[in-house]
C-alpha cells in the first residue's frame, strides 16, 4: 500500500474525531480492529467504540506532525486541542492491513491513566444525564451495571424496584423532556473503581401542571466492566432543615441562594 494511501487512512481517523463522524471512522477500521493504550489492553472494535469513541465529544482539533510510514505501520505525533481549550500531546502507532486500520496503539504525553479515566467517567456521566433529559430508559440503563444499588430521594430507603421500571414510572409523571444537567462535577479514583459527585439541576412540568425547578446532591459509584465505566451506585439527597420541622430543604440553590 502506498504511503499516500496510508496517510489518508490515518488522517481520516483524526478527522472523524474532529467532526464527531462515527460512520467515517467505522469505514476505515478492520472488523478485527484492536486498540491499546496505557489504560486499554488490546481491546476489540466493539469495546473501542463503547469506551473510546465518546471522547470525540471533547475533541476540538488535532495538529498532526508529518506521518512516518514504514511497511505496514504509521507513526504520528500530534497536539490535540479539547473543546474547553486545553491541549495535550500524544503519539499513535497505526498498523494497516488490507486497506484498513487493524490496530492502533497510543502513547500518552502529559496524560496519566488517572486523568484519562477521569475524562472517560465525565463522558459517561454526561451521557447518562442527557439520557435522563430525553426520558430514554434504555439509554440510562446502558450506563448502569446489571444490579446497581440506588438511594433515590423517593421512598423506600433503598430503591427495590428494577431500575428500568422505576425510571418509566418516574418519567411518566412529567410532560415532555426534562431539564437535567450536572453541575460542579468532581471525579476521584480510577483503575477499576471511582466516585463522582456534583449537583443536579432538574426542571420540567408535571402532568398535573406543576413546574419543577429543583437542585439536589448526587454521588455516583462507578466500576469498570469489560473496559467500560458503569454506574454501580447512585445516591441522591437534599439537606433537611434543622428547625424541628423535619422538612426537606428543596429550595436551595448553588452559592447559598434559595428559590
Automatic annotation (TrEMBL):
Alphabetized InterPro entries for the sequence: NTF2-like_dom_sf, SnoaL-like
Coiled coil residues, start to end: none
Residue ranges occupied by any SnoaL-like domain in the UniProt entry: 10-103, 121-240
Domain of life, per lineage: Bacteria
Organism field: Luteolibacter yonseiensis
Name listed for the protein in its UniProt record: Nuclear transport factor 2 family protein
UniProt cross-references to Pfam families, sorted A to Z: SnoaL_2, SnoaL_3
Amino acid at each position: 500500500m502506498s504511503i499516500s494511501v496510508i496517510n489518508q487512512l490515518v488522517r481520516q481517523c483524526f478527522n472523524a474525531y474532529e467532526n464527531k463522524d462515527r460512520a467515517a471512522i467505522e469505514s476505515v477500521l478492520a472488523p478485527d480492529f484492536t486498540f491499546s493504550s496505557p489504560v486499554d489492553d488490546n481491546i476489540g472494535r466493539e469495546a473501542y467504540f463503547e469506551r473510546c469513541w465518546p471522547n470525540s465529544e471533547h475533541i476540538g482539533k488535532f495538529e498532526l506532525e508529518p506521518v512516518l510510514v514504514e511497511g505496514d505501520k504509521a507513526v504520528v505525533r500530534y497536539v490535540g486541542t479539547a473543546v474547553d481549550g486545553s491541549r495535550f500531546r500524544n503519539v499513535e502507532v497505526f498498523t494497516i492491513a488490507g486497506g484498513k486500520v487493524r490496530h492502533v496503539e497510543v502513547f500518552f504525553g502529559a496524560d496519566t491513566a488517572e486523568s484519562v479515566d477521569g475524562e472517560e467517567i465525565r463522558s459517561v456521566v454526561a451521557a447518562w444525564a442527557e439520557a435522563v433529559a430525553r426520558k430514554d430508559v434504555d439509554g440510562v440503563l446502558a450506563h448502569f451495571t446489571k444490579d446497581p444499588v440506588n438511594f433515590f430521594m423517593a421512598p423506600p430507603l433503598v430503591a427495590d424496584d428494577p431500575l428500568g421500571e422505576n425510571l418509566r414510572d418516574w418519567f411518566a409523571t412529567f410532560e415532555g423532556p426534562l431539564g437535567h444537567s450536572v453541575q460542579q462535577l468532581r471525579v476521584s479514583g480510577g483503575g477499576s473503581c471511582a466516585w463522582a459527585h456534583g449537583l443536579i439541576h432538574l426542571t420540567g412540568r408535571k402532568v398535573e401542571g406543576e413546574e419543577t425547578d429543583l437542585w439536589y446532591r448526587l454521588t455516583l459509584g462507578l466500576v469498570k466492566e469489560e473496559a467500560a465505566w458503569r454506574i454501580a451506585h447512585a445516591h441522591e439527597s437534599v439537606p433537611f432543615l434543622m428547625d424541628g420541622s423535619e422538612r426537606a430543604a428543596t429550595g436551595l440553590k448553588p452559592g447559598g441562594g434559595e428559590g
